[in-house]
Structure formats: C-alpha cells, structure tokens
C-alpha cells in the first residue's frame, strides 16, 4: 500500500480489461487523529481513459489504525491514472480535512510487457544513512526492441524525485529481466518508491513499495 500522510491507500485490482468493472479502494488512517463524517471519491484524471460512475461514498468515521474498503464502479477504456480524495473532520466537531492521493495508474487491456514485481530490499529495521536496493522484475509478453523502467522516490513532506532510469533492450516474448536502483535513507518517516514501465507508446505498467523508517 502507498502512503500520503495521514492515509495509507491501495486500489484493487491494478489491471482491468476494457469495459465496466468495480474497483475497491482501501483506506487506512495512519495519522494521530480519528476522522469523522468521511466522504471518499474516486477521480478519473483523464475521462477518455476512465469514467467513474456514482456519487462520493460516505461513512461515519475512519479511526486511527483502522481500514475502510470502499467500492466504486468504473468504465475503463485504456491505461491511465485515477486518484482518491477525502473530505472529513479531524475528530468530532474538529476542523475540516481534505486529502487527495498521488495519481494511481491502472493498466487496461493487454500490454506488450508488465512489471511482475517491485520491492525495496530491506531488513525489518532501517537505519538512517543506510543504502537500500530497489528491484523491479520486467516480463516481456511480446518481442520488444526497447523498454524503460523509471524509479522515483517520495518521502513524507518531501518532493517526488527521480532515482534512476534503466533501459532494457531486445527482450524476447516470455523473457524476464531485472532493473535495479539504490535508495539512501536520509530521513525518518514513510518512503515510497515508484517504478514506471514505458515502451515507445508511453507508460504501460506501474508498481510501488513503501517502507517506514522510525
């Protein structure tokens, strides 16, 4: 699951065929306050890729360390980005709260390659100053002359910055290849690494992994 404080979030499934489907949004409150009178909305960033059907979904509260699963119906046309937004109150009678996730890519249809997995390789306890390895496994569905994996890092309260770009040349159908990047841990809090897979037509897949540095 990804984290944009104070919400940990995930959308399932990550892949769809064209047509009408249900997406499940998982929301976990990792902040210090309960959220009351919550309204959650799934947003299409490009209406030519996705149409989200229905009104915002309301529930009474999202307590600290609790998870809520919210279903949304969508019509999918092609690979693109969605986002999740929340309107709520911090505690009963507290100030209003607005939150929106980072863009969430959803793959639609059959692409010529995919990210089978993506992990930050680490021990249970991460120390400041430690350098970690990030690994993405690319699977080629068809013969391909060139693929690119881009790694980006996002930290709590900090910008999203590029880590590394890896070029993969001449993969055959059915072939797997790994792409690597290094991450130096320089601050406490959540660290999310995003891996984007591109071919000559644009972005075709995405995965992420998050660690918490205490």
**Mean pLDDT across all amino acids:** 89
Tell me the span between the first and last alpha carbons: 18 Å
N to C succession of SSEs: EEEEEEEEEEEEEEEEEE
- What is the CA-atom radius of gyration, in angstroms? 18 Å
Low-confidence runs (pLDDT<50, min 5 residues)?
Answer: none
Largest beta-sheet details: 6 strands, mixed
As a percent range, the share of helical residues equals under 10%
Structural class: mainly beta
> Count of helical segments?
0
Shape by Cα distribution: flat
Number of strands: 18
**What proportion of the residues form beta strands (DSSP E)?**
over 45%
Plain-language structure description:
The chain is built from no helices and 18 strands. The model has no long low-confidence stretch (mean pLDDT 89). Helix content is 0%, strand content 69%. By secondary structure, the chain is mainly β. Strands 3, 5, 7, 9, 10 and 11 form a 6-stranded mixed β-sheet that branches. The two termini are 18 Å apart. It has strands at 2-4, 7-12, 15-16, 19-29, 35-44, 50-53, 57-62, 67-76, 80-90, 96-100, 104-108, 113-121, 131-140, 144-155, 160-171, 176-184, 189-199, 202-213.
């Amino acid at each position: 699951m990804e984290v944009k404080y104070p919400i940990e979030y995930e959308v399932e499934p990550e892949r769809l065929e064209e047509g009408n489907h249900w997406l499940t949004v998982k929301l976990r409150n990792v902040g210090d306050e309960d959220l009351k009178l919550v309204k959650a909305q799934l947003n299409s960033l490009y209406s030519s890729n996705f149409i989200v059907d229905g009104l915002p979904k309301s529930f009474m509260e999202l307590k600290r360390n609790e998870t809520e699963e919210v279903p949304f119906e969508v019509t999918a046309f092609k690979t693109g980005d969605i986002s999740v937004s929340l309107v709520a109150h911090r505690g009963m009678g507290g100030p209003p709260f607005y939150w929106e996730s980072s863009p969430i890519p959803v793959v639609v249809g059959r692409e010529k390659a995919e990210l089978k997995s993506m992990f930050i390789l680490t021990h249970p306890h991460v120390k400041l100053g430690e350098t970690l390895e990030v690994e993405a496994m690319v699977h080629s569905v068809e013969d391909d002359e060139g693929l690119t994996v881009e790694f980006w890092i996002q930290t709590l309260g900090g910008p999203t910055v590029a880590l590394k770009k890896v070029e993969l040349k001449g993969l055959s159908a059915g072939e797997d290849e790994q792409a690597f990047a290094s991450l130096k841990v320089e601050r406490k809090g959540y660290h999310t690494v995003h891996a984007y897979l591109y071919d000559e037509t644009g972005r075709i897949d995405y995965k992420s992994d998050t660690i918490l540095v205490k």
